[in-house]
Amino acid sequence: MGKDESLFRHFGTKAIHAGQEPDPATGAIMTPIYQTSTFVQEYPGKHKGYAYARGKNPTRDALQRNIAALENGKFGLCFSSGMGAMDAVIKLLKPGDEVITGNDLYGGSYRMFTKIFEPMGIKFHFIDLSDARHILKNINSNTRLIWIETPTNPTMQIVDISACAGIAQSHGILLAVDNTFASPYLQNPLDLGADIVMHSVTKYLGGHSDVVMGALVMNREDLYERLAFIHNSCGATPGPMDSFLVLRGIKTLHVRMERHCENGKHVAEFLRNHPAIEKVFWPGFADHPNHDIAKKQMRGFGGMVSARLKNADLEKTFKIASSFRVFSLAESLGGVESLVNHPATMTHASIPKNEREKSGVTDNLLRFSVGIEDIRDLLEDLRHALSI
Asked: Which of 106, 110, 185, 224 is catalytic?
């Protein structure tokens, strides 16, 4: 017998149960890994909802329902990467359409916008979104989409989702929010008026640095049907094993995020008081730009912290970044293990130097994905590396 999902009122319960049923064949409590490329049909066109695994797979379906529930959405789609999910959203557009987005943006997003879609005739406006009213100066009859990150990568800028949604709705424009840094545990953009929520599932949702995946969640059925058509037609779909791993990871998302937030606060405060640090970027500080908006639209401030080193040239910055013993120098974020990243040469290397420096991505900036290890070991590791 299926579970009554109306009973899943709170996040921790939804994370563990939403979208999943005991296996009807065996009663297995975990969704099986349907490791198959095709499904037998009774006669041509008559099947049990599954024909070919690029289009639908039962393991992926369970994950899509689960992620949609976490975002308080009706429809979910999982992709083979976060960039695959993003690509599908931009494919809603046509040549001549325009997009408004932030000037502090993940380097891969900037690269896709400028190197893939701009040559196809889609125009992008990279603007300061610290005040949503800046959007109004860039809207014209060709504007079709507003794409925002909040908190942004890597300077943790906070964008007012509700304000952006109000502007988008009044002009008949789609609003898509990259919610990767916050995760559904801390922030739900659909509740604030967004049309589409995007996740790099690779990060907090998966949580264990063993899967690459993306996801989109929405409430509008017409939007879902258009994106599902792109999803199936273009084929950036994840396999069942990865879907199973993410389902397993999400079961502890709420527990992990509590520790990420707790450790992130300790790391941010430690760095702010360290003599080797010039500036710390963390939305939990009362003087962080738009801190009040972060308090309003988020349930916590997350485990992402960036810091600018004091009097450090590129060589000194590299030396410090390579001196950690608990934090690992690596791309990505959101896993249980702590990572340190040098955005200028790693995640944001595709952005021209003058453009990234305008948004604060300088050569002496380090980004920390604070994991769930014992905070005493993390702080000692910071003391060691910053003393180099």
From this structure: 106
Over range 241-257, report the average pLDDT. 98
Using only the alpha carbons of the chain, give its radius of gyration: 21
The question of whether 178 is a catalytic residue gets the answer: yes
Residue bearing tokens 């608990």: 326
Q: What distance in Å separates the CA atoms of residue 76 and residue 73, rounded to the nearest whole number?
A: 7
Q: What mean pLDDT comes out for the span 258-274?
A: 98
- The catalytic residue among 65, 91, 203, 367 is 203
Find the catalytic residue in 54, 226, 248, 272: 54
Rounded to 5 degrees, φ, ψ at 313 are: -80, -175
Q: Which domains does the chain have, with CATH numbers?
A: 10-250 (3.40.640.10), 253-386 (3.90.1150.10)
Residue among 191, 104, 119 nearest 154 (CA):
104
Classify residue 341 as exposed, middle or buried by CB count within 10 Å of its CB (0-12, 13-18, 19+). Answer: buried
Q: Is 50 a catalytic residue?
A: no
List 61, 87, 104, 178, catalytic entry: 178
CB-count burial class (<10 Å; 0-12, 13-18, 19+) for 346: middle
**In this structure, are residues 19 and 251 in contact, taking their beta carbons and an 8 Å threshold?**
no
Beta partners for 100? 125, 146
Active site residue 34: no
Mean pLDDT of 34-63: 93
CB 348 within 8 A of CB 380: no
Give catalytic status of residue 54 as yes or no: yes
User: What are the tens digits of pLDDT across the range 205-240?
Assistant: 999 999 999 999 999 999 999 999 999 999 999 999
